[in-house]
Task: structure prediction
Amino acid sequence: MNHKDTDHRRGARARLVTIVSMLATAVAAPSLAASCADQGAGVFLGDDRLDSGPSSFTTTEDAQVDAETMTAYCPSSACPAGFTTCPDSRYPCDVSLETDRDNCGACGSVCPSDGLGNIYTCAKGRCVQKCEGAYRDCDGIVDNGCEILPHTNEHCGECDIACTDPAKPCVAQPGVKGVYACGCPNDGLYCPRNSPECVNPQNDDHNCGGCGMACDPLGDGLPPPVNDTVSYGCSKGECGHLKCTFGNGNCDGDIESNGCETRITTSPNCGGCGIVCPAGQDCRFDAAHQAFECKCPPGQTLCGAGCEGDVCYGECKDFASDSLNCGGCGITCSGLFDSKSIASCSYGSCTRVCLPGWADCNGNTADSCEVNTDSDPLNCGGCGIACDAVAGQACVLGRCVVEPCDKDAGGPTR
Amino acid sequence: MKTRWLLVVMGTASAPIAAAACASEDRNVAPADDAAAMAVPSADASVDALPDVPPPPCDDCAWFPETCTPDVLCQSGPFVGGATGGTLDSRTRMNVVRGRSESDVWAAGALGAVAHFDGTSWKVSELGVPASISALWLRDSGEVAIAAMSTLYTHGLPGGAGGWTSPDAPSTPPEYRGSNMTLMSTFAAPGAEWMWCAMRSEDADPAMRTSGLWRLRRTAEGAFEIGVGIAPEICRFTYPCSQMTSVHGRSAGELWAVGSAGAAIHLTDADGETPVAEPFNSQTMNALNGVWVAPDGEVWAVGAQGTVRRHRGDSRVWDVVADVPTTVDLDAIWGTSGSDIWAVGKMGVVLHYDGVAWSRLAVAGLGQRRPNLTSVWTASPGRVWVAGQGVLLSIGGNP
Result:
């Protein structure tokens, strides 16, 4: 079962519970009192664990009753509306014709397979297409699915948003993953052969003043740099400006005579002149930000630490909540993920929770949450909660099904 | 007439209400009268101690009284507000409690939580890093806290500095691959060279799983070394030992290990070069989460859904233990003799076996909390510590 199926089931469950919740609540209290007074001899709400035997369901005084009309209810093997038993069913009434994409509207009526960019769900007994991710159904034709990934000049970002200016084609916007728009933002220059395609021609050493115009780090005839802490690069759209090389800073303001004389890889000057790391933090190169940063802030711990010369690196992880570093570097909760459960890191400990409608009754992680508590009459709503097997009572949405004992008062319909 | 349907709330609503209203009937699960003679409080005593108040709005309130009394389990140590030895955050899951004696007990858990009991009081021991500790190795001198097989912290070992330090990662055999394995628990018999590690191989494909039984030792040079317990190919193809949860034994050479799907493995030559595994029939497919071997050689195991199994003599088949007064998952077991055994599990369940029957004990002062209990260790009858989610319990709240 995928998550979407579960969502549908959850929705259906909510509707049914709403219908019966008042009745169930009203019925429980009086029945309970009777049960205790009789030391377990009484029967109520069809709960087999407290039941003295299936036959007791036939007695009016022991049967559960509708608080509003005093109608007695008995276990039923029939399916409520919207549910049925299909030829490949594992349990009675375990198919929701409204939400099961393999039996959508009728047994064996299978919704189309998911295609590129589109998925199908069963809603109210009909197969419904839904576009996935960035894909869009721009032509409105269901048969070809969500046919467009809107990264083109005809459909840029969304359907029918066209980029008509050749200088501003549809381009991935820098710094925002997956977002496309016409042209580069902030007076950026579109350079189709560069990666990324949007550059700042004012200071890009490889596209200085125009696409592909690379600066000569040695100055191309200018006086050679005083040392290897500096090189020539692009500034204000022109080459020939001295710049600090990786890991060096010009902290005394005199770049021409002594270059970038200060290492900005250490705690007193971390990523810039005079940027001092707080106590307990070290200066590390951050690969994601391409900059030196003080690590780690309170509440985080350094993982993957190492040094090459005076350049140290590593990533800060929150051991309390990071499911890939739960309670320690590289300790992952991912082994607990599967289609029937979710795992998370809770205050440094991995926890696994079964998805609604499923339960882990045997404690074995290998089979995950192996019990379908929505439909299994032996584990209806929870491990070991059994419906009336003698009566063939069905389990639907985690509840044992009942119907009025007096069929004239209204029997089940399918 | 209009057709009407009623989907009845069976277990989640009606059953708890029923149990609460009939709470007094639960006294039927009380242990035999001689329990008190062992200095272990009886289950019915704890229930009787409850004040005569209207039924509380929960089905298990009888097992969770508000007030700590000498005959129930209560919070102690670092989870008691204002504890002089330091406190731990109530969100902390304690994973293990073990001791050498009743005046030398250690507990450890999530995000660097470590505490020591010296016979008088508990004191928080600063690990220095927020690593979650899964197991403890209490050596003859010094302690090893284990976050993962490759992440150890040592304390008081010869040649070590004061406080906790992190040694170099252990050397590993070629068969060992640390990723996709979860350390569940460890055990080292007194005097043993090797500490055994029960691990869970997490690969979804059984054919890709490795061994669930590895070993760890400290060499003469002071370095740590991981060794093969049972070979990966044996656990992958021959015996069900790829997902193990617990190991215990009376001696260094003979141990028992249990794990998923009712795995029960007898280990011989356990401290030798090539340990031998032999599977037994535990008569369950439920996960077994804890094993403990009594001084007389009787073996007890607990697991999912209140599963309890016992092995005696030379039988190839474990005995099914019925009449266990819980259906929640039991996660740990320890004892001092065949008539003083403790088991703990989910939802604050604590059980005691007095040699005749299992009975449940109350846990006081938790309010509406029903913490999962993860570990138990006892030094002598009545002197027991239970660790779990935000709790460190002892009888009567004694430290």
Q: What stands out?
A: The mean pLDDT of chain B is 87. The longest helix of chain B spans residues 10-21.
